[in-house]
Write a structure and sequence with these properties.
Layout: E1 3-5, E2 11-17, H1 22-36, E3 44-55, E4 58-67, H2 68-80, E5 88-90, H3 91-102, E6 110-116, E7 120-127, E8 130-138, H4 143-155, E9 165-171, H5 180-186, E10 191-196, H6 214-254, H7 258-282, H8 285-304, E11 310-317, E12 322-329, H9 332-343, E13 348-361, E14 364-375
Helix pairs in contact: 6-7, 6-8
């Protein structure tokens, strides 16, 4: 669940950065934060929003910085309530984006926005869609004096444009009945009251400011990757078990190489453990599952092509892209027939007979063989 930090708890500076490149803007913002704020860099959490380019070669930026102690304390309090903090947003940015989206802020006026919250309020001045001033304060009996103080701070810069209208915004849980008459009397410029029912943090406003500490984000990413890896191992292992179970059933029906079945099942655990190294090399969960499916399909198709005059005693995969078939045939011609069928499968790019040895068993000539199939991965 996202957390919104009120304006009066965050240092906000609206600056022009001489760059249009995001990477360069990010570095300049970090430098500007250290320059502007009387705190060591390691004690701050800094974020920003690129508002846009309003003069050639410059980007208008909302720099936001909060003390690490304050942010971490809020995260701990939510954790005690079993609430995991997602993003940490700034109320100023959310309100600014919301008013733009609703069309309350006009692109042909300089508007003074007074947002009245339940416990705190903030002042924004928006020059034809561009945020140029921001100040926040806790609610008190000196509410109107705080507004005047904010306007005075804005007017200190003689280059700042005059205000065309005043917009009073407030959420539905704020009772404005008693305050409205005094506010109307206080301002001489055209005045608009805007009450909204939306929860700003839940809206899709494309916010960029995020005061969540980077180390918290890194830990969550690592935990998610570990969970995904466990799921991947389980899926691949399950696929392999299913295919070996299928082959086990077929071998049981034909009463062939029962001993080979036992050997394959014994090897299964080590093969699954070996997948960890392979999965790290591939780096993609989708490729892991696809690879497991590929091997399983190759085993199934090659087994279906096996001639009746061939007995398979072992099937093996070396973990390096090759599968091996060991067994006995009634003649070399049957082995070559099997090899030709395997070569016709799309799963193998090369099939070769590693050895073929003749022997006499109970007066019958048999040929032991070992076929290597290189997978077409």
């Amino acid at each position: 669940m996202n957390l919104v930090i009120p304006r009066h708890l965050v240092f906000v500076k609206l600056i022009d950065i001489p760059s249009l490149e995001e990477d360069e803007i990010g570095r300049m913002v970090e430098f500007q934060a250290v320059k502007e704020i009387p705190h060591p860099k390691e004690d701050l959490i800094v974020s920003y929003r690129n508002i846009g380019s309003y003069q050639n070669g410059f980007s208008s930026v909302m720099l936001a910085a909060a003390t690490r102690d304050m942010i971490e304390e809020k995260i701990r309090k939510r954790a005690h309530l079993n609430i995991q903090t997602g993003h940490i947003r700034l109320s100023t940015e959310l309100l600014y984006l919301f008013l733009l989206k609703k069309g309350i802020l006009k692109h042909d006026k300089v508007s003074l926005v007074v947002h009245i919250g339940k416990d705190a309020s903030e002042i924004m001045i928006v020059d034809r869609g561009r945020l140029i001033f921001s100040r926040g304060f806790k609610n008190s009996e000196r509410f109107l004096q705080e507004i005047d103080r904010s306007i005075l701070a804005y007017r200190r810069d003689k280059d700042n444009p005059g205000v065309d209208d005043v917009i009073i915004t407030y959420p539905q849980d704020v009772d404005m009945q008693d305050a409205t008459p005094s506010i109307k009397k206080h301002f001489s410029a055209p005045l608009v009251f805007y009450k909204y029912n939306e929860d700003l943090v839940s809206l899709d406003l494309s916010a960029q400011v995020d005061l969540l500490p980077k180390e918290v984000t890194y830990k969550r990413v690592n935990r998610r990757k570990r969970r995904e890896s466990i799921v991947t191992y389980s899926l691949v292992g399950f696929i392999i078990i299913l295919f070996f179970a299928f082959f086990s059933f077929k071998l049981y029906e034909k009463k062939k190489f029962v001993g080979a079945l036992s050997a394959n099942l014994n090897k299964m655990q080590s093969r699954i453990q070996g997948l960890d190294k392979y999965l790290k090399k591939t780096g993609s969960i989708r490729n892991h599952i696809k690879y497991g499916n590929f091997i399983g399909e190759a085993l199934e198709r090659s087994y279906m092509l096996m001639p009746q005059d061939i007995t398979i005693s072992a099937m093996d995969y070396n973990g390096k892209g090759s599968m091996f078939y060991k067994g006995t045939a009634k003649g070399m011609s049957f082995i070559l027939t099997f090899v030709n069928k395997l070569e016709g499968l799309r799963y193998f790019k090369k099939v070769e007979v590693r050895y073929a040895t003749k022997k006499i068993v109970k007066g019958e000539e048999l040929t032991d063989f070992n076929i290597r199939c290189q997978l077409a991965l």
